[in-house]
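Working notes for the structural subgroup meeting. M.R. asked for a predicted model of this chain before we commit to crystallization trials. I am recording the input and output together here so anyone reviewing the notebook later can reproduce the run.

Input as submitted:
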Amino acid sequence: MAGYVKNPTPDEVKGKILEALSVVKDTGKLRKGVNEVTKAIEKKSAQLVIVAEDVQPEEVVMHIPILCEEKGIPCAFVNTRKELGTAAGLLVPTSSIAIENAGGGKEVVADIIKRLPKK
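Returned structure, recorded in token form:
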């Protein structure tokens, strides 16, 4: 597990996150990639931030969980960049995604946030 993962996301929640991303990509709004996610966190427009655990070098995403904590935005982790990109409808892997508008996945996203480990 990567050093930036302070509160690991339970495996059953990881599956729900990937399912939710499939719904949100069609009915809501996602921000993809480290730069876009960082902007969404700083503007406090992100409802939930998801980061892959296999990012190399780790320094690329180390700031994201810290920023989320400062801004009070829930942050979750999934196993790989590939599965994160695929769930978001991308043809390439991605390190991080921010859900700005859950759209049709609003209830699922709320359930995911409730199930995340507390600090």
